[in-house]
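Lecture 7 notes. Example A: sequence first, then its structure tokens.
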Amino acid sequence: MSKNPPIKIEDVRAEIDRVDNALLSLIAERLELAAAVRRAKSGVRFWRPSREESHIRELAAATEDTPPELVSRIWAELMSASIALQGPMKLHIALEGDALDVWTLVRDRFGAAIPAVSYPTASSALAAAYEDDEGVAVLPAPGGMNSWWTALGARGAMPDMHILSGLPRTGGEDWPRAVAVSTADIQPSGADQTLLICNRGIEVQGAKFRAEAGEHILLSVEEFLDEAPKGTKIIGCLPKPIGFTK
């Protein structure tokens, strides 16, 4: 009875080296393509979180053997490298709470190559991002005692800023630990919840309560809305985490 020949570790290592070299070639090709996209889109906002989220969700769904967390981290680094080489985007990070935890969330979502500046409070990080044409603020998710999100209301100091992404990008929770905020446009990713700000007493059918601050209430609706319900203002759109099922 014949037996399969034993696997030689040298052969396996040679195959790993071959795959590694192929990966590096493909990464170099992707960076070149990213540079071409940036040249073609001169004058357009570089960070497009809705496009990024939908693309990574599709990639994670297309491979059953690779954990979504790994897919997210790999593409975070690839996109981070592309942005750092081609665009002026900068992260303005509020280090409220556990600083190490915040930096871990930022690294997993945005990679390590994008320039970043840290601030002691959410308000200072938000203000710095507002003054930066391609700035993105990473802030504690609305809830609890924080009230920075009221600045995004119709009468707030920064009504043209929007909550556009949640951190972490993967997981089973429907509300993030931190959010990314910028003046980029609100666009659908294909699996979203729309964020609405309104005054107390306003009711929106199917909306979920998320936070309150003074007379202001933050609600979420489990779909992408093009138009705000009466008495509310849309201040963001959060793509649902990859892996979230409900």
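Example B, a different protein, same format:
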Amino acid sequence: MDSFLRRLKYYGFGFGIGLLFVVFFFQNRGCSWLPANRVKNSILERILVVPDAEMSALKAKGISKNDLIQVLNDGDVDFQQSAKKGNPQVYKLLKEFNGKELSFYFTLPEESFISEIHFSEASARKVKNSKEGLGTIIRFPADKDLVIVDEGKKLTCLQESMGLINPKIILKCFVKSGKIDFAKSDLRAKPKAIQTVIFKDPSGRTAEATAIWYKNKINITAFNVSFANDCEGYSTQNVDK
């Protein structure tokens, strides 16, 4: 019995040392079960979007897109000053820049594939889902198959007209030129929030994609273009989600 207790003490001591290394030396990056990291991982599973209205405030403070991503890497989640209920949930993250601690607000709208980053609001409870203007996309989840498209003759026709029959090409266009159109999105729609992405096709023509978040994928349910008249004779046959 004494031998067992001795081994148990050694195990507990070693486990404690290892935990200290993870928490203090590796900045919790390996502890997905910690509350702060669960929040950060939930945000990183989505597309990070900065409303254009927030860009000027960020630029005035010298905050770049890379700085915003770094906030998620090693910023501190302030749970007491976050809005953990409602739609959207809003989490306040703190990070020091140029000797001053700054506050950033990350949204988690229900059933949505985006997370907005706000900076100019005074508190998490004042942050709402954007309903006008555009949003600049600064980061996509690391998933080469992030985009899927519903079935239907009209959707296939529109994809062919834009040279986007492969969803991977659509994702590349989103990464290169995509913006969220808040005015044409509805983040309170049921059963899924609806987002509209404006982008340039491979020929440089402007197009719109209406999409929902389905099993951690950007599921395109419709395209809106002004240059594919040959597709108007088809009806959109969406797969029921």
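Note on Example B: The helical segments are 2-25, 35-44, 52-60, 65-74, 153-162, 167-177. The chain has two domains: 31-134, 140-231.
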